[in-house]
Amino acid sequence: MAIERSGDAVSLNSVSSIPYDQHQPLKQQLSAALSPFAKSTCNVSIVLSQHMYHMVQVDKPEMAEEDITTALPWTLGELVPYDSSNMVLDYVDYPVKSRSGGQKINVFAAERSSLAAVAASMAKKKDKQLTHIHTKRG
Fold first, then answer.
1. DSSP per residue over 76-90, as a string?
2. I need a surface site. Which of 72, 89, 128, 130 has the fewest CB within 10 A?
3. What is the pLDDT of residues 6-30, one digit of tens each?
4. Helix, strand, coil content of the chain in percent (nearest 5)
């Protein structure tokens, strides 16, 4: 999506969305999605297809909040198809406690190497800045 600003006025210029194709290199798909903006300087926000990440619900580890993300790769174990050294993740607290009274969290995990390739590809584009990577809902 390209948004133009002129003074206080903001207008939508164009939008680019390309469905994820697991048979095509991600770098190639990213270039195709950005081609309509070849002559523009812009910020880029990427939304990961549901095929590119896993969301699992687990018991919230009983430890300091700042240590949870570090512990999660080993907590996830067999629940995601990524090796603990090749995983990037984040979590959100699940709003409802379990019947046993324990707190649950929803963990979003993705393959570090594929996201690193996207970030490296974006870093080479002088007029494009990667600002966010999101997960697709629903």
1. HGGGSSS-GGGEEEE
2. 130
3. 677 766 666 667 777 878 887 788 8
4. 35, 35, 35
